[in-house]
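Cast an eye over this sequence plus tokens and explain the fold to me:
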Amino acid sequence: MATKFQKTKKAPIEAALANLKEAHKNQDVTAIDAATAEMNTAWTAASEEIYKAQAAGEQPGAGAQADAGHQQQANDTVTDAEFEEVK
């Protein structure tokens, strides 16, 4: 998955970043705005793919992790400690 992501989504992000750096170097506010929008579009497309991959991979184990956390809480015992305040 990581290799596929890098090939399909990394190039547009790098191109948008290069455009943004160039616009910043030239102090062109209009170009900076356009390059920022381009960067956001490229990053949104890449992050959607990441979230989809994570959701597909985490669904089967999510319930087991929640059960483990619940069991840990049930086994924890809390005891009050006696203390003396010294002034």
